[in-house]
Design a protein that fits this description.
single chain, alpha+beta, two-stranded antiparallel sheet, 6 helices, 4 strands
């Protein structure tokens, strides 16, 4: 039986770290985390200023994969897969790949991998362009709210349905 002090210490440490990995990674009908897009490649894309659309995510390849957080991840090349394998938490999107703004308002919904932003070396995804506008009105505040909400969302089911404006058939590429 766990001691009360041990449980409270663990909960406190989770709050301090703002753990974004409360449960298994979200996987859509592609069968891959991040809808089969290469999460390492975001670091090679030129991030644009707030208010402008980010470059499109880069699809991974069906035959270049790694496993992490209960999911299969696809990569554009072996070098990216190897970087991910050395430090997957650095590259995996926070909130297990759910929409960051959705988490900030208390829900778990699918994210669109093309709607991304790296903040403080962490990858955040959102669901629609309109939501990105709301997210960008107060990124720091929304991250704070999302971190506070995330622990309580672990046990909740994700809302059903696909991300509007996103077709998950674009990745990973290769034979299926």
């Amino acid at each position: 039986m766990l001691s009360k002090q041990f449980v409270l210490t663990g909960a406190f440490l989770a709050m301090l770290t703002g753990s974004a990995f409360a449960g298994p990674q979200f996987v859509d009908e592609s069968g891959f985390a991040a809808s089969g897009f290469d999460v390492v490649e975001y670091r090679n894309l030129k991030q644009v200023p707030v208010g402008q659309p980010q470059p499109q995510a880069v699809p991974g390849k069906q035959n270049i994969v790694a496993d992490y957080n209960g999911a299969k991840w696809a990569f554009a090349n072996e070098a990216n897969r190897d970087l991910f394998s050395k430090d997957p938490a650095k590259y995996a999107p926070v909130f297990d790949g759910h929409c960051a703004y959705g988490v900030s308002v208390g829900g778990k919904v699918q994210a669109n991998p093309h709607l991304w932003r790296i903040v403080d070396d962490k990858l955040y995804l959102n669901i629609t362009r309109n939501v990105v506008g709301d997210w960008e009105e107060d990124i720091t505040g929304n991250i704070s709210k999302a971190n506070s909400n995330w622990t309580g969302l672990e046990a909740k089911q994700q809302a059903t349905g696909n991300a509007p404006e996103f077709d998950s058939s674009g990745a990973p590429v290769g034979q299926r």
